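Incident log, structure service

09:12 report received: a user says their structure output differs between two submissions of the same chain.
09:20 pulled the input from the user's history:
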Amino acid sequence: MEKPNIIYIQSDQHNPEIIGCAGDDIVETPNLDKLANSGTIITNAYAASPICVPSRMSAITGLNPCETEVWTNDQILNSAIPTYAHSLGANKYNPVQVGRMHFNGSDQYHGFTERLVGDHSLNHLGSPRDPGTHGELLGTAGPKRISLKESGIGQTAYQVHDEIVSSEAVKYIDDIGKRDNNNPISLSIGLMLPHQPFIASKEDYEKYADKVGMPKNPAKPLDKCHPYIQWWRQQTGSEEVSKEEIIRCRIAYYALVDRMDKIIGDILDALDRNGLMENTMIVYTSDHGEQLGEHGLWWKQTFYENSVKVPAIISWPGHIPDKQILDTVINQYDLMATMLDASNSPELPRSNGKSLLKHLQDPIKNKWDNLAFSEYCMDDSSINDFSGNLMGNDVHAKEGGVQNRMVRKDNFKLIYYHGYDVELFDLKNDPNELNDLSKDNNYLNKKKELLDLVLKNWDPKKIHKRMIVLKGEQKIQQDWARNTDPEDTLRWNLDPAKDSTRLDK
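09:34 re-ran on a clean worker, output below:
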């Protein structure tokens, strides 16, 4: 069989429910909807971690964070670990990447032969080079209250980034279309939208201003929340958020999803006009979700559905059914295994990913093991900023660190918080996660079964000790970068002038 083209599109922080084809009747996502209509959307896809770098490194390797040892956004993936790009390259593809991948360290490629646009962050933590900031929107890209206060109409550098990424991807596709060869292409496209700042253009914002309402699951009083969630809301200053802030952020987020869809549409149009849609597998996903005020929570970092689940759309006309919606429980790295299977590329030796291809083609005949894991771990409060100084206000700072893990098996989800009680949800009967069953005697056996699963080959105390060692090694690397000033081999300039807001101060 002729090798298919492989197109992988990954956004940043896209709530999987806020897509037209996922049932949202407010947001306009005609391009993602069209993609889903030509293939399959999977409604229960889980990121390996509800935070950027660990999730991305797990997706491309098929390894969980406890196996990559990338638990935080400042850790570095070992270049000896092969990625799906290595596998495609071993199969005579030319794996090209454009835009966001969130690689740290000297290796900014990890198997890609070309990266046409780099990440906006420093290659080397600790580097004295300009780290790039969001100017007057400084702090709004992180999980902090300021991102809710400074929300509304304006421009973010992330949208500028994505428009450049789209332009470069379209140019690459057009150039491929002009060549007289039949070699299949492998193109990975990384977008920053709809990641906060919750800032959207006037045109996009006003389109949703009278359409987007409050969250369907309002915030509980703080003392009614799980103790860990209490701590997290206090750390991020989100104990009390005004209705005006909530509505502003939600409107802006819907507008950003709309804009992202338009950007993806430009890429899909380029593939179409160059005759590259035939025998092409296109996969769309994100690195994690966005809570958007549900349960009083924002951003990601928890294992509630809006945070840890990701959109998953797979299109391969003529090879998998169109207009298919599956509620199969998958790990995100199963998408990578599926692309490798479809292209007859070598399996990654240690990958946990399983190809979905046969299941997609006939889900009744080819049953699936509905099992997914995710983990979220942070080291102790000695988290350094780029200058090496302690970040006293870092929201992740917690004595003893954080070692949390989730397992979803069939309809049940157990959330393990080290040092706290677990939470247990029956997602079939309680999809909004309002009724914690962990103390219900009728579910003791289910709780034990899932607790055994979540702790199998996963020791929170060992992880804590290992992260202390890694932080010590990282400190030396930061000091090295600070003193030797290594070049940024691949980087997109995040210009503070590209961020602005016209909100009244």
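09:41 both user submissions now match this output. Likely a transient worker issue. Closing.
09:42 reviewer note: The CA atoms of residues 146 and 338 lie 40 Å apart. The chain has 14 helices and 16 strands.
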